[in-house]
């Protein structure tokens, strides 16, 4: 219930993993959201997969199409228009990339973080924290 005493419709989703998303599940979710019209839309993380940034990524994962994965996740976020976006461990790979990389890789991670902010303009973003589930300070 909101502060004004009126109920608000909300929905939460997670783990669409960019280009790894199941097309049938995404289509069903889109239909549901379109019919339900929630005022609050929460994304619980892992909108993108970023498997190429995973610690221990295989050579095959490092050769996969980074752009297709990232764009699929961004397209989902553009459509979904989350009001809150909690970074999952997959988005956190970009933050680790900023901390542990130099040059072009660091620039790419920053550009991807900037793009995630651009495609979720109305969302409050929260950092990933595997121990506490993130603190209440907004990310970015």
Outline the secondary-structure elements.
Elements: E1 10-13, H1 23-36, E2 40-43, H2 59-63, H3 66-80, E3 84-86, H4 89-100, H5 103-118, E4 124-126
Helix pairs in contact: 4-5
Could you explain the architecture of this structure?
The C terminus is likely disordered. Helix 1 links the parallel strand 1 and strand 2. The chain is globular and about 50 Å long. The protein has 140 residues and is α/β, with parallel strands linked by helices. It is 44% helix and 10% strand. The chain contains 5 helices and 4 strands. The two termini are 28 Å apart. Strands 1-2-3-4 form a 4-stranded parallel beta sheet, with no helix packed on it.
Shape: globular
Largest sheet: 4 strands, parallel
- Helix-strand category: alpha/beta
H/E series: EHEHHEHHE
Using only CA atoms, what is the Rg? 16 Å
Mean pLDDT: 91
Per DSSP, the total helix count is 5
Give the strand content: 5-15%
Strands of the largest sheet, in order across it? Answer: 1-2-3-4
């Amino acid at each position: 219930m909101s502060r004004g005493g009126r109920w608000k419709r909300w929905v939460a989703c997670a783990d669409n993993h960019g280009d790894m998303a199941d097309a049938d599940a995404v289509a069903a979710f889109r239909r549901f959201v379109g019919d339900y019209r929630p005022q609050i839309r929460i994304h619980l993380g892992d909108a993108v997969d970023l498997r190429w940034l995973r610690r221990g990524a295989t050579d095959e994962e490092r050769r996969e199409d980074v752009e297709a994965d990232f764009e699929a996740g961004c397209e989902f976020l553009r459509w979904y228009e989350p009001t809150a976006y909690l970074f999952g461990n997959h988005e956190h790979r970009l933050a680790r990339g900023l901390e542990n990389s130099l040059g072009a890789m660091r620039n790419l991670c920053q550009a991807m973080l900037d793009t995630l902010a651009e495609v979720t303009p109305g969302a409050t973003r929260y950092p990933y924290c595997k121990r506490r589930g993130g603190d209440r300070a907004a990310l970015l």
